[in-house]
């Protein structure tokens, strides 16, 4: 079964990458223009001070300018990597490296691990100037960075060490599963990833997160009492309530929850507690988070992820033996990992569509969680809390509708406040 002219995968992938770069840059330019607007959006006038607005504007504009440079370098890097055949070149070199180190060069697992080590280190090096500039120039200039250089590099090294420990067994398992193959390959791969994510979910809070942050139980007091009361009134299985020392790295603030269905944890950033004026605002933010749980948003997202993973592996099994695909990118052999990487490149258009759709759903979920908190009587404190977080994080006040529709997983503040107000009006 030979087609007369093989499909030009490489050219199509690079062409699409450039197209997406131009499209996203156009959106960035629209957003940049919105950020330059000299006044607050009408619903925030009188609520957010001019001082906060100007600070947020300066921060957003600086991040936006940085992003233009970062994205331009990124597209040059990525297309050069593909067009110059750096992937097959690196694959060959890592094979010889395995041999030089005295290992069995014909082992696909060792060859793949060497290849991954090379490209992981290489991408760390390429990213380093950007993450250094972003952390120690931009974040520092706007008062967010609390990190020392030492902590910064310690985080990178810890991350790499973790990859070295966790990565190889996973990669090896995937290669073995694909090599054993069979008609249900996609199902096996999906089941393996599901098992893996459950194991990581169980290990993460106990073994991994403590490597990077200190978790302390929220001390007894008004705040703890209120959160526990709220959780139990909703039947939320709150097992642990932690404060995390986010302030050692950044003064950005947040709160999140995670855990298996009958054993959940809530984690509050110490910065969230210090930034909100009173406990009610923190509790309102938690009420919003619990809304995601009560309305099964977490479950839906999990299920969506499972379906997408299964579809991806299904697609992969269709092309994994396509000689044309490998040849187009300059590969004369067909290693498992390379097949997965090339497949990921070719489904980029779907990726963009899916992430756009997921953002749409996520924004709908945010409105629902806000409405949930409102129905519990937290309307005013949620309003106040959201405004506080927006101000303290210097988030963009003016947003371009195209840009936010495409990129935002959370609706812009103005839209959230409007939705809260309208819902209350309807009830009057
Ligand atoms: Zn939310």
UniProtKB/TrEMBL annotation:
Bilayer-spanning residue ranges: 6-23, 109-130, 151-178, 184-207, 300-319, 325-343
Lipid bilayer topology: Multi-pass membrane protein
Record text on cofactor binding: Binds 1 zinc ion per subunit.
Keyword Protease: yes
Active site (UniProt): 289, 370 (proton donor)
Co-factor(s): Zn(2+)
Places the protein is found: Endoplasmic reticulum membrane
GO term, biological process aspect, one: CAAX-box protein processing
UniProt keyword Lyase, yes or no: no
Cellular component GO terms, alphabetical: endoplasmic reticulum membrane
Binding sites annotated in the UniProt record for Zn(2+): 288, 292, 366
Superkingdom to which the source organism belongs: Eukaryota
GO molecular function, one term: metalloendopeptidase activity
EC number(s) recorded for this UniProt protein: 3.4.24.84
Family label: Belongs to the peptidase M48A family.
Protein name: CAAX prenyl protease
Species annotation: Physcomitrium patens (Spreading-leaved earth moss)
Lineage: Eukaryota, Viridiplantae, Streptophyta, Embryophyta, Bryophyta
């Amino acid at each position: 079964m030979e087609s007369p002219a093989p499909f030009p995968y490489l050219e199509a992938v690079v062409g699409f990458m450039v197209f997406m770069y131009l499209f996203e840059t156009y959106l960035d330019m629209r957003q940049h223009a919105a950020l330059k607007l000299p006044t607050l959006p009408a619903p925030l006038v009188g609520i957010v001070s001019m001082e906060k607005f100007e600070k947020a504007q300066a921060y957003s504009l600086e991040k936006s300018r940085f992003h233009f440079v970062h994205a331009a370098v990124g597209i040059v890097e990525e297309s050069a990597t593909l067009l110059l055949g750096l992937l097959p070149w690196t694959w060959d070199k890592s094979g010889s490296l395995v041999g030089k180190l005295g290992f069995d060069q014909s082992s696909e697992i060792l060859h793949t691990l060497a290849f991954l080590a090379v490209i992981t280190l290489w991408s760390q090096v390429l990213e380093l100037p950007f993450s250094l500039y972003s952390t120690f120039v931009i974040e520092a200039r706007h008062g967010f960075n609390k990190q020392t250089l030492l902590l910064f590099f310690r985080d990178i090294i810890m991350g790499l060490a973790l990859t070295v420990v966790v990565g190889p067994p996973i990669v090896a398992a995937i290669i073995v599963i694909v090599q054993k193959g069979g008609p249900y390959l996609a199902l096996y791969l999906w089941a393996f990833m599901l098992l893996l994510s459950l194991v990581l979910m169980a290990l993460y809070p106990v073994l991994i997160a403590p490597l990077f942050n200190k978790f302390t139980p929220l001390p007894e007091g008004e705040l703890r009492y209120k959160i526990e009361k709220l959780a139990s009134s909703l039947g939320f299985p709150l097992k642990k309530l932690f404060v995390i020392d986010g302030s050692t790295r950044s003064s950005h603030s947040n709160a999140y929850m995670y855990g298996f269905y009958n054993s959940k944890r809530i984690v509050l950033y110490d910065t969230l507690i210090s930034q909100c004026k009173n406990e009610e605002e923190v509790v309102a933010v938690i009420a919003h988070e619990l809304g995601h749980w009560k309305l099964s948003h977490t479950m839906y997202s999990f299920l969506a992820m499972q379906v997408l993973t299964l579809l991806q592996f299904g697609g992969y099994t269709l092309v994994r033996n396509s000689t044309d695909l490998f040849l187009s990118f300059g590969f004369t052999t067909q290693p498992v990992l390379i097949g997965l990487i090339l497949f990921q490149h070719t489904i980029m258009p779907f990726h963009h569509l899916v992430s756009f759709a997921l953002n749409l759903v996520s924004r709908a979920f945010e409105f629902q969680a806000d409405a949930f908190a409102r129905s519990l009587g937290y309307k005013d404190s949620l309003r106040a809390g959201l405004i506080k977080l927006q101000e303290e994080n210097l988030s963009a006040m003016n947003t371009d509708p195209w840009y936010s529709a495409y990129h935002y997983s959370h609706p812009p503040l103005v839209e959230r406040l409007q939705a809260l107000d309208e819902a209350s009006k309807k009830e009057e």
